[in-house]
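Narrative summary of target 7.
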Amino acid sequence: LSPIMLRRQKLATKIEEQLELARCQKNGTLYAPKRLKTVTNEAGERVVVETTKRVKEWFWTTPTNKINLSVRYGSKTLELAKGKNAIELGTLDELIETLALLQQVVIGGELDEAINNASDKLRAGFAK
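Modeled conformation, tokenized:
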């Protein structure tokens, strides 16, 4: 796959996690995805254990009871429009619909420029 396709796929996967998180919050259940992790036990052996994956929310509630959603690529927030990096929503249902729409937009390639900018900023942080 090309680097552009890999970035799209990475972001679409993260949006899917946020979508599941929002659905679970709406239903009142806990979202706790599992992942495999290699650790060293007391005997010095490396073993693979299943742990809960930590998923940070991309959305938060404002004092006016609106929900704000920002899209993140790694540790960087994507600029969705010139000077705008969040979407204001009213309910969890709107949040779920918006996340599903964002996932389609990312796969369609409409946010490639914003993803490339965020990726360049991330890469620049690792340079010496």
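The beta strands are 34-40, 46-52, 59-61, 67-69, 72-73, 76-77, 87-89.
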